[in-house]
Amino acid sequence: MPNNMEGRGLTDREMVQLCLELEKGRCRSLSNTMLEVSHEPLRKIYGHCLESSSDGHYRLFNLLNDKGWYMTEAATAAQIGKVQELMQNNLHPDDQF
Questions:
Q1: Dihedral of CA 5/7/10/11: which sign?
Q2: What is the distance between the alpha carbons of residues 9 and 3, in angstroms, rounded to a whole number?
């Protein structure tokens, strides 16, 4: 449903999807930063921020999923087994699919 009377602007779905993408980017940035931080107190601060951002991302994902706006496909037992095998052999699953 449009967010203004003339029917222009972002829909609720689009706004939540944008927020989800922003949180995803924030998680990537914080994760990359944590890989480079050696100062333990600062690392803990970034870790707390990453956890908070990850929780926010998950809540947004669930909101979209609950409304039917972000559907995911369940993995088959064969797909799960393949990923487990790749991980045990230290291979990245995305390189195989």
A1: positive
A2: 6
Q: Report whether 3 contacts 11 (CB < 8 A).
A: yes
Answer yes or no: pTM beyond 0.90. no
Question: Under a CB-based contact definition with an 8 Å cutoff, are residues 58 and 39 in contact?
Answer: no
Q: Name the residue range of residue 44's domain.
A: 12-72
Residue 95 forms part of a structural domain? no
Structure tokens at 51: 């956890």
Query: Residue 32 half-sphere exposure, CB side, CA atoms within 13 Å?
Result: 6
* Count of the separate structural domains present in the chain: 1
Name the token pair of 45: 């601060």
> How far is C-alpha 9 from the chain's CA centre?
25
| 16-62 confidence digits (pLDDT tens) | 999 999 999 999 999 999 999 999 999 999 999 999 999 999 999 99
Q: Are the CB atoms for 43 and 76 separated by under 8 Å?
A: no
Report yes or no on 34 lying in a domain. yes
- Does residue 84 fall inside a structural domain? no
